[in-house]
Fold these 2 entries.
Entry 1:
Amino acid sequence: MSNDVDNSRRKFIAAGVAGTAGLVLAPGVTLLDMANARPAGEAASNAKRWGMLIDSTKCVTGCNDCVSACGKENGFGSTGHPETDAQWIRKIELKEVKSGKTHSLPMMCQHCAQPPCVDVCPTGASFKRADGIVLVDRHICIGCRYCMMACPYKARSFVHEEHHDQNPDVPRGKGCVEACTLCVQRIDKDLQPACVEACSAGNHGAMMFGDLNDPNSEISKRIATYATTQVRPDLALNTGVRYQGI
Amino acid sequence: MINPAKWRSVLGWLAAALSALLLAGVTPATAHDEHGEHKLIAKGDKCVRDDDYMRRNHMKILMHQRDETMHKGIRGSQDSLKNCIECHVNPKTNSVASSKEDFCMGCHSYAGVKLDCFECHSSKPKAVAGGMHPTVMPEQRSSEGADKQSSQSGKMPLQMQAKQASLNMGEGVK
Amino acid sequence: MNDVFSKNKDGAFFFVLGLIGLVVLAGLGAAYYMEEHGHVVTGMTNQIVWGLPHVFALFLIVAASGVLNVASIGSVFGKPVYKARAPLSGLLAIAMLAGGLMVLMLDLGRSDRLIIAMTYLNLKSVFALNVFLYTVFFSVVALYLWTMMDRKMHAYSRYVGFAAFIWRLALTTGTGAIFGFLVARQAYGTALLAPMFIIMSFSFGLAVFMIAQAVMYRWNDLTLDEVILRRLKNLLAVFVAAVLYFTAVYHMTNLYFAKQLDFERFILLDGGIYTMLFWVGQVFVGGVLPLFLLFTARKSGPVLVASALIILGGFFQLYVFLIGGQAFPLNLFPGMEQSSSFFDGVIHPYSPSLPEFLLGMGGIAAAALITVIAAKVLNFMPDDKHHSVSH
């Protein structure tokens, strides 16, 4: 065997490994999460149910990391009209009336399993994807805002002004209703929602994202261990977002 | 009383007008680039379908694909709008619909059909440098090999950042 | 009967038509302005998502189904006095529904997608159901008009009248259900809203009919027979009293629930403009005062004033209902004070803008336009020739 043949084989193997590693690791997923990736051409399925767990005891009044990250990722910010600006996530400051105890938490679309917004949409633009994410199909949204009336969490925003230079991954425009998409453009690439990533990057550790249908996922294990609540549980909407410490 | 001669002439005119209309519809609209200032801006040598098919049916492909992506979550198709923009972007304006010089707007302004897509969709391609790339690259372009190279180097810092994020989260261990 | 108009009447007619047309144009212009710049030019926000145009549209739609009541009493219950008025009532129903729907459709964020609204229907949505109910209503009432005005079709008017009666009950129930099916908000989400809307439609519809009828009589220099007037006004008084009853039941039930107390305090006590509009506008101007006028009236003057007050009170009632209901914030965390950058936990302010008002007025004008043109072209004048003054 000449050295040339050995070297070329080694080069080939090295290139192959590097290529595969690059493909796998590059989108920001650890090797162990490779199993979660949905290949191109495959539809979302109800085998997964995406959800979030928010530990409000770790939320701090004044911290807006999740809110800024959401705006940056999805391409919106303040236009100077706070009453008509879209807000997909916001920090709610809570104060118990009797005791005065305060705490804060982020509130966004709760991705209910029985979403009132989906029931009321006349065109079916507001819909629930197979893996549990509630979305607005802006191709068929007529902007009637009935879903905004129906949502118990005030999660939806109406786009009141023209927008330009949208994020190509997040089309949004005047006249349609929108809400938190759980960063569907990111989770389809096996990334975390922007808010969750920002919370972790800031070392707050208040937000967790994962597959509620998988009993071995971190989020499911937590929900099975600690007491968690849904907001407005009396409505029995079976939300995908749960909270600790309310 | 209308006399037969007059009837015949009226019918004759009607027939002529009707056939003219029909012919106009039947003649394939070979989008000659002489119409207006429209230039066939494209990368590579072929589109995802035949030129003639695309001229008549690109809207059907787009409509079908949007439902697949939106409702079923199917990503990475070669029929996606983003993929169209990648090839058809005008290098001068970095857009497909910002002016009559651009690909989409060129034909649509000539045909007088209002474009609704870019009210919501960005008409510009995604920024490539340091940007997130999908797990699987869908493009069928010949420059695929070159892309992989550049994407590898661009991804390294993100990989480290994301790894730290997932470590913090303690999530995703299977 | 039609060619009663003399030459100068014709001039006056075209002048009135022109005025109404101008208002319609103003409404269309306002809609274009809103469409072009986005809803940021209106007073509607992410907190008050349905504003003044919806108040106008809701009134027109509710009154449209109610005005058909006059015809229903004629065809379904066989009262000849009402039967004579049925064609006018049918015309007003179509005209007002068209006006109300025009306002609703032009206020949409994407009005250009109306075809989508008609082809993609989510059958679980009461909105989609309403689209179906409205379109069929137009056809049924048009058919009804045909059976009444075409001598050959007279035999069928009873059956079509019955169908129209049932259909409009379904339609108003659907309109009330738009709010009744909303579980989230404290002002809505009650089954009471469907029958309440039906009673409101009776009251508003008859009031509109009285005014429209009076205008027609005046224009043709005729006077309404006093006996007919007395029966109509007594019926109107019953309806107004019924609306007051439903209002009382709605609020008293809410007051019984601890979780609704904050909302009731807002509407009944310290809601500022909403409290004032409720007590002064809805209860007094729209209820108590017209009742007094109707029970003590001997001539047509006070009856018409009462009808106008009922209409005004109806607008106030719908304003408090629709906008007051949205102004009161959603209570995500009962027992806690909430605040955020997205206006949680605070009363949401709303100031109607000019485009919204113009659009609403445009809807009313569109209804008037249809009525005026149809009344000019066809015979909608109530035919009391066969009515003998009964005692």
Entry 2:
Amino acid sequence: MKKLLKYVIVDLVQNKIVLIYTALLLVISLSIFNLENNAAKGMLSLLNIILIIVPLICIIFSTIYIYNSAEFVELLVSQPLKRKTIWLSLFSGLSSSLSLAFFIGTGIPVLLYHADATGFMMVAAGLFLTIVFVSIAMLAAGLTRDKAKGIGLSILLWLYLSLIFDALVLFLLFQFQDYPLEKIMVIFSFLNPIDLGRIQILLQMDISALMGYTGAVFRDFFGNNTGIILSFLGLFIWIVFPLIISLTKFKRKDL
Amino acid sequence: MIVAKKITKKFGKLKALDNISVTFLKGECIALLGPNGCGKTTLIKSLLGMVVPDNGSIHFDNELISGKWKYRSRIGYMPQIGRYPENMTIAQIIGMMKDIRKENTKIPDEELVKSFGLQNMMQKKMRTLSGGTTQKVSAALAFMFHPDVLILDEPTAGLDPLSSEKLKQKIIREKQNGKLILITSHILSELDDLVTEVFYMQEGKLVFHKKLTALKEETGEIKLSKAIAKIMRKEEMVN
């Protein structure tokens, strides 16, 4: 595992996209903190960028990378290596290098300008989202052999999780506004990793009052330590579940 | 050494392997023959675990291979079309393979690297190599780790006559060391002095598996190519 991981990471570093992604995040975070005179306002702007850009770049880059390593995988499958090792090396290589990129690009500026509970929560949520979307990319790439279909699928998944899911939830809320849906909203938020990250960061920012009664229910559920642990457990399941499905697919794949 | 029992593999509707049972023993040199698309490569890939058969079992030294991986350290495989990570150089590929397979304590066999003159282009990236040179890298890698079994899929396709001859001499030497060698090739004339057995497939089915001497006696031909041609003609007549 370690041997292969080394080759995957060397290859990713040579591939300049990860470096460009790091620089892009760094430029965005630094300019936001320097444009806003209030660091808390800067955090809010940064939040929206993190919740859109990080998942998008992680899922698309990882999907394309997995398809482009087809030759690498094919070469290794005929060697004395477990298929599990090959697949997990790809996953760990991608998630560690993209996490490092996020930590350098956004984590360090946030910790420099806003090193409090909100800042830590934002970095933690960003790192978890990075790995979740690498894992979803592994699933998208494992489900289909066709590169165009795979990339399309991963764009659709991103679109679903960042826009369509919220639209559906809003639609349900308006349709059933006569009923008390606050508790169900808590369950719904576990169905979307981006929402889990967003709720945790917003609660730390102490602006949940803006969300009305639902905000109060969220505060009640997610605001304490058990809630924080539960939501990160939720994110962890979002990492493990797609990865396991893609791994079982890969084990039976014909190369 | 390798025993396959009733393996079947379908790709959609196409039956690539249809109920194939076969035993390959140590010290044999077997030619896998048959028309294009008859399932030779699928059979090879099943032995390597790259393709998972729908039915049937494959044993390597009395051990079931499904889900296993260690047995592959005893196989050297040369693919029909070697596909390698494009950004790696020849040196990096060879280094990586040594890294992966170094549990083998023997010194890597770099004879083919030298005789093919690969050491002069070690820093070239795989993407810039010609088909023939890529083929040479595949051959060098297949022989490098002293495997007990050599699986060569169209080894001489794309090689110049000189390199092809060098590879052939290497195969003969390994055969004399008592290794099991599986070769597919369409150039029958060069198999004459290599193989001891012939395994002939058609449309995913095994047509026959015979000793070369028996085959020649049966058809009354001295050359393998003529003997095979005679059988193919007979098959056509039956159909």
